[in-house]
Amino acid sequence: xxxxxxxxxxxxxxxxxxxxxxxxDNVSLDSNIGTAITKTQEYLANVNQILPVSTxxxxxxxxIAVNGFILLWKxxxxxxxxxxxxx
Length: 87
Fold this sequence. Notes:
Layout: H1 2-22, H2 31-50, H3 53-82
């Protein structure tokens, strides 16, 4: 339920940023962009044989979580140092 709330907020923020683009006429993508997306999918399929995407995503997720914890720890310590009576 909380996750849905945050996703809803994120969706609305992205929707707000894209609102000026939605006012424009519909445009079609260049064929080279479609070709680039197809080529990228082929390259990622080859990389998936060596290092599965789920493993790669879990490694990136752990990395982001550890860095987020370190950032939170530094922010808490900074706040504690800013309180005059505790310093």
